[in-house]
């Protein structure tokens, strides 16, 4: 609608068929900037939103480098299918623990999936979590800009209505194998929903 794209996961908490994942059709290379407006429309106090970027398959065991070659394996988007079989950066935000019941105890966290190590999510979290941000209230629109430049990733978050609500997150990804190509995707865990608008991506060189 004129408000943007209303992306709504399923309503059954704990049921993986209620996860929702949406991928851009294009693939991107090199350093990138991702920018969009995000308005949370749920009021839950648990589960997460995720931005995936520069995502490729592990390229073994039928998990082709182009993840669209095995879309059928993600008909039910189990989280483990992603972190066990994709190389990608992952930022969770407007995020709460699965069993959390405290709306103020949100977090932002970055991961780099390492399927070759076959350890699930172990050792995928990149140092620099952000807790109790005070952001992402239901119904409030935020402009989000994510920049991946060589060995650094930044996420800038600014409220569209309250200039005091802003946060710049920064991560150093130099200790992990670099990712320089792949797809961009959005995940809502079960019960999560939001409106996205003005979604833009730029590729740029040094």
Summarize this entry quickly.
This protein is mainly β and 206 residues long.
Q: Which oligomeric state applies?
A: single chain
Count every helix, treating DSSP H or I runs of 4 or more residues as helices: 1
| Main pleated-sheet profile | 7 strands, antiparallel
Helix proportion range: under 10%
* Low-pLDDT residue spans: none
Total number of β-strand segments?
13
In whole angstroms, the N-to-C terminal distance is 37 Å
Protein structure class? mainly beta
Mean pLDDT: 95
Order of secondary-structure elements: EEEEEHEEEEEEEE
| Beta-strand proportion | over 45%
CA-based gyration radius: 16 Å
Shape: globular
Keywords, separated by commas or semicolons:
206 residues, 6-stranded antiparallel sheet, 1 helix, mainly beta
Explain this structure.
This protein has 206 residues and is mostly beta strands. The longest helix is centred in the middle third of the chain and has 5 residues, at 79-83. The model has no long low-confidence stretch (mean pLDDT 95). It is globular, with a radius of gyration of 16 Å. The termini are far apart. The strands form two sheets. Strands 2, 3, 5, 6, 7, 8 and 12 form a seven-stranded antiparallel sheet that branches. A six-stranded antiparallel sheet has the order 1-13-4-9-10-11, with no helix packed on it. It has one helix and 13 strands; from the N terminus they run βββββαββββββββ.
